[in-house]
Amino acid sequence: MTLVKAINNALDIKLEDNKDVVIYGEDVGYEGGVFRVTQGLQKKYGAERVFDSPLAESGIVGTAVGMAVAGMKPVVEMQFSGFAYPGFNHMISHVSRMRNRSRGKYTSSMVIRMPYGGGIKALEHHSESMEAIYGHIPGLKVVIPSTPHDAKGLLISAIESEDPVIYMEPKRIYRAVKQEVSDDKFNVEIGRANVVQQGKDITVVSYGAMMRDTQKALAMAKKAGMSVELIDLRTIYPLDVETIASSIKKTGRVLTVHEGPTSFGVASEINSLALEEAFLHLEAPPKRVTGFDTIFPLPQGEHHYMPSPEKIYYEIEKTVKF
Amino acid sequence: MFKEYDPLKNKLFSVMDKDGTITNEKWMPEISDEQSLQAYKDMMFARKADLMTVSYQRQGRIYTYPPNYGQEAIAGGIAQVLRDDDWVVPAYRELGVWLAKGATLKEVFLYFMGYEDGSKFENAKHLLPVSVPIASQLLHATGIGYEIKYHKKDEVVYTFVGDGGTSEGDFHEALNFASVWKVPVVFIIQNNQYAISFNVKNQTSSQNLAVKSVAYGLKSIQVDGNDFFAMTKVAQEASKLAREKQEPVLVEALTYRKGAHTTSDDPSKYRTKEEEQEWEEKDPMKRMKGYLQAKDLWDDKQEEELDGQYKKEVERQFEEAENYGEYPLEDVFQYHYAEMPDVLKKQMYAHQKYLKWKEGQ
Fold it and tell me: ipTM surpassing 0.85, yes or no?
């Protein structure tokens, strides 16, 4: 199963088992989405439950707030994360706040899906990786899968969650990764990172599409005789502090890889965590291998921006040998 | 009615003149004398509470508050059609509607004293908390409308926005979504002439605000919002369209914010005494009282007596709110998620530790 298929499968399962689940957004109904993530669902569940909305992201997220307050479970799509910002006002002003504002009387539990990330030679606004800004909003949860298995299990958990979840999809690997995934319903818990590989020299943390590049770097590190522990974050907020901290305590080193800009990013948060939770265990300064604090370049400059396996390896080696 | 008062004709719908004489019998709503009198009393209570709240604020006993003074008839009219199952999705200047829906004054006080607990509205079904970001609530109302239609429920959503809010994108997105989806939502613009200091004349080049619905394919009407009977008639017709035909409707209610935008604002800086006097003559309470007095349903003595009773009632609820007690630290944290995440727990425990240390100092 590809990642796209896994997401589609999770949506199918939840549409089947909860009549209050509705899916809408731009082009998601008849066409099945520009990436075909929702393909076939309108045909199966009808246009009242899977439908194309007018082209207005604020309208999409804002109306989802109302549906959720009234007890439905909207799963809405932002066609690209770069176009989510008209809807951002509702995310930060209402989706995240309704429970607290009403002291739990009303909730705004919904899933907002959005493809994110670079490496696909796209037009402006189609390549950014802005998960950190969602992670900064009290009241939201933010998840990013890196495998078809996790994509399915996390999405099922997100739809079943009583909290609003921003579900970011690594579109670069929508079809690049295939994995055996069960057709049955299963959950991947939100808030739990996955230790993909055990190691003793350094902890490398990544998530989403960068997991692939990171794994390529790890193969190089293995050849060079380094033992790397790899953590797939899976949930950006709330961070799985325990898993990350205990790994850093074990290895004494940490390096985080992501596409988003360096400053105030997820890697900065993990570095803080390393200092607060594992200070006396550290053998080297915590390291970030990330996008620059720059606007994401158009396709001809993209290769400069994206962390490559070689660059990740280069920084791993420096940190291990520090 | 919507045809006769098509907003493109720029014709204001009213039923009663400034002295309370019915001038438009054709469109007088069906309403009993008892109902009219009760509505007047409810509007009186809302006004009393509003004026007293402003003075509590002046005494430093409550924080910033947005006064409703002068806009009571809009709530008065909507209250006539509001059912228990119907939804109210407010902005922040709809005191009369909140009370009609079952919110207590004590809760309103709590909110403006700075307790989220005031937004629980324990006895008010389907009343949303205040929404501060201008016009955003209109989309929430539209989403609720979708749920009503989806589950084939017999409910209507009433949602409110000010004149300034009609310039926000969300206003337009909400009208468009509601019209495309055909959902039972009544959008009410409280056109009180000012968005803080900015006069509605400069807010738009449209001939009126109701006309903005035309492009979206919604019925709409511009109504004298200081005319209780006109408001009631519009509320009846709009809710009928919404309830029976799943048709969203836009209502522009013309009124005047006699008070300030909030207690932090000073309207004398941006409007004239002459203008205020002009609107004083169209005051909704004065007109309604004129009507009731002409029918021998009400007199000054009764009014004075009730005013005294209401004063006591407002004081009682205010005192209850004032004695509400401490805001516990846990309440800052515990309502963000269904279950508090570890990262939040850690922050809370760390702060508790600090507090303990401070106590020992």
Answer: yes
